[in-house]
Structures are given as C-alpha cells and as structure tokens.
Amino acid sequence: MTYVGKILVIVIMAFALMFMGISTVVFTTAANWKDLTAKEKAKVADLTKKNSDAAASLEALKKDLEAATKTAQQQQQALENKIAALTSEIEQIRQQNTTAQGEVAVAQQNSRTALEEAESRRNETGLLREQKLAVEKQADQFKLQHAELSDQIRILTRERDVARKNSDDLRDRNARFSSLLRQHGLSDDISQVKGMESPPAVHGQVLRIENNRKIEISIGSDDGLVVGHELILWRKTPRSEYLGKIKITAVDPDQAVGVVIGNTIQGKKILEGDIVSSTFRSGPRS
Length: 286
Known about the structure:
Blueprint: H1 3-183, E1 203-210, E2 214-217, E3 230-235, E4 241-251, E5 256-260, E6 275-277
Antiparallel strand pairs: 1-2, 1-6, 2-5, 3-4, 3-6, 4-5
C-alpha cells in the first residue's frame, strides 16, 4: 500500500472516529433533549399556571388598586376638606388672636388708666381723710360751740324772762309812780324832773359780759340807778384806764344790765371785775 493510501486510511479512520463521536454525542444529546423538553414543558405548564395565577392576582390587585385609589381619593378629598376647615379655623383663630391682641392692648391701656385713676383716688382718699379729720375736728368745735350757744340761749332765755318780769314790774311801778305824781300835781315825764339827768355817785363791778356789748353789773335801783343812766366803764389794774361808757337798760334792786355805747376804746375786751361808776378813777364800792 502506498503512502497516500495509508494517509487516506488514516484520514478515513479519523473521520470514522469523528462521526462515531458525533453520533454518540447526537444520541446522547437527543436523550437529554427529551428529558429537557419534558422538563421545559413541565416548567412551561408551571409558568403558565403561575402566569394565570399572577394574572388573577394582578386583576385582583387592579381591583384592589382601584378600590384603594378610590379610597385614597376619598381620603384625599376628606383631608382636603379637613385642611380647608382647619385653614378656615386657623384664619378665624388668627382673626380672634388679632382681636384678642387688640382687646389685650385695650385692657392694658384700661389697666394703666385704672391704675392711674386708682392712684388719683388714693390721693383723693388721703385728701378726703384729711378733710374728714378736719371736718370732725370742726364738728367737735361746733359741738362745743353748740353747747356754749345752748348755755348762752338758756342764759338769754333766763335773762329774757327776768327782763320781762322786770319790764312788767317797771311798767307797774311806772304806772304807780305816774299815778302818785299826778295825784300830787306833778308831771310824770321823767325828763322834766330835775336831778334825774345824771346818775348818782355809784361804784360797782362787771359781773358778766355778753359779746363785749351787753354787761351785767353789781349795782341796781337800791343804789339809785334807773333805766337810761350812763355810767363810765374803766379798769383799775394793772393801771387805771378808761374803756368807754354803758347805758342802763334794765334795773333790779341789787344789779342792773347795760349796753356799751358805741365801741370800747381800741376795741378792748371787757372783763369780769372791771369797774362801772359815775366818775372815772373812783374806788369800788365798799
């Protein structure tokens, strides 16, 4: 056999081995493809079932999504409504806050005004308290003055009663004197009787004074005094000084009442114990 023939035999043998290997591979592969096909079919069936289940689940999820979307829209609408209500409420609260701030400002101003008024009233209360104390003091003084006036009224009433009695007595005495004078053929006009123009020589003391005008003295008709006589009023101590004149307005046997003619010298006050007499610088009656 030639060299080429040997090469061909070798090549044929190589190809034969290669085809035998391919055949083996093809056979093996064919058996594997059957198993794989069965497995893949099973997978496809499983996937198809899963797909159907997934489609059903997806449909259910779509329905759930639609329901959830609707619910979400309703909730969103409710939230928007609530937000709108809250916004309106917040706006109202802001307005109320603004109003409250204004009221607070007004209240603060009113408080300041009230405090100022309270301070003013406190000052006024202090002033009124002082005025009340002054009024109470003045009221006490008025009470004392009222008591003094009541005493003076009682004294004046008593003096009035005495004066009325004296007047009645004088009228009676004057009527009797007039009748007696006429019985003796004399005039009852005292101004025409000589010796009655001037008072007799008398000396007495001031017993009581009223308003530095009306005085009561210690001498009367028993000393020769009659209504109308004028006496000198003077003071003996600490030195002799002339005070003025008085005119007798009422007479009792042992005392008389007179009034100051005009005013006393330099407006001096008459005191109990001052001298009344018909002449100046005469001693008191013993």
